[in-house]
């Protein structure tokens, strides 16, 4: 089953709710690909021996990995961290997350500054490009176990919006003029 994504409503209700528009406006994988979002469906039950995951890591240079459990019982300063994750921001590097258990939402901005909600579940590996405005929250399950991947040493710096002059943001915006609609092999 492929990842699910949709345009969000403008409600300020609990961010853990789906926030579908009425009527629902689903977003196809091709639209996410145009934004630079990459996606793979893997086997989370055998991630330690998964050749496809190993190939992705080698091909893309992800040599650092750790695991993060996000739930009230396992994450210190849970409420504060979840609030920080949900603050709109960019990174200077890609954000790579592989959902091993549970589920949650990554929200990304499209070219027209609309929010797209991406629902990740166990088996979904998602890569957000450097410079894309995004945020993360749990869904109503209140639990997710994520693998975080990095090139080299991990960098945990978030740059809250606005960041239009940040080099990663400029490069991301410039990429639209150079390679709009390039097909991605990840799907």
UniProtKB/TrEMBL annotation:
Belongs to the acireductone dioxygenase (ARD) family. Its cofactor is Fe(2+); Ni(2+). It catalyses: 1,2-dihydroxy-5-(methylsulfanyl)pent-1-en-3-one + O2 = 3-(methylsulfanyl)propanoate + CO + formate + 2 H(+); 1,2-dihydroxy-5-(methylsulfanyl)pent-1-en-3-one + O2 = 4-methylsulfanyl-2-oxobutanoate + formate + 2 H(+). Keywords: Amino-acid biosynthesis, Cytoplasm, Dioxygenase, Iron, Metal-binding, Methionine biosynthesis, Nickel, Nucleus, Oxidoreductase. The gene is LOC110768657. One of its GO terms (biological process) is L-methionine salvage from methylthioadenosine. Catalyzes 2 different reactions between oxygen and the acireductone 1,2-dihydroxy-3-keto-5-methylthiopentene (DHK-MTPene) depending upon the metal bound in the active site. Fe-containing acireductone dioxygenase (Fe-ARD) produces formate and 2-keto-4-methylthiobutyrate (KMTB), the alpha-ketoacid precursor of methionine in the methionine recycle pathway. Ni-containing acireductone dioxygenase (Ni-ARD) produces methylthiopropionate, carbon monoxide and formate, and does not lie on the methionine recycle pathway. This is Acireductone dioxygenase. It is a peripheral membrane protein. GO terms for cellular component: cytoplasm; nucleus; plasma membrane. InterPro entries: ARD, ARD_euk, RmlC-like_jellyroll, RmlC_Cupin_sf. Its main location: membrane. The keyword Amino-acid biosynthesis applies. HAMAP family: Salvage_MtnD_euk (MF_03154).
């Amino acid at each position: 089953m492929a990842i699910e994504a949709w345009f969000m409503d403008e409600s300020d209700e609990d961010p853990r709710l789906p926030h579908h528009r009425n009527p629902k406006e689903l977003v196809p994988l091709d639209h996410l690909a145009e934004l630079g979002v990459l996606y793979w469906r893997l086997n989370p039950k055998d991630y330690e021996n998964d050749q496809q995951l190993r190939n992705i890591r080698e091909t893309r240079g992800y040599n650092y990995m750790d695991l993060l459990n996000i739930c009230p019982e396992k994450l210190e300063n849970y409420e504060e961290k979840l609030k920080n994750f949900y603050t709109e921001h960019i990174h200077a590097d890609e954000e790579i997350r592989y959902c091993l258990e549970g589920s949650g939402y990554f929200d990304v901005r499209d070219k027209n500054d609309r929010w797209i909600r991406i629902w990740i579940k166990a088996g979904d590996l998602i890569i957000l490009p450097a410079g894309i405005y995004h945020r993360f929250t749990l869904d109503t399950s209140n639990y997710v176990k994520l693998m975080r991947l990095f090139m080299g040493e991990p960098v945990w710096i978030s740059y809250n919006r606005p960041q239009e002059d940040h080099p990663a943001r400029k490069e991301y915006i410039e990429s639209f003029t150079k390679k709009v609609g390039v097909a991605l092999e990840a799907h």
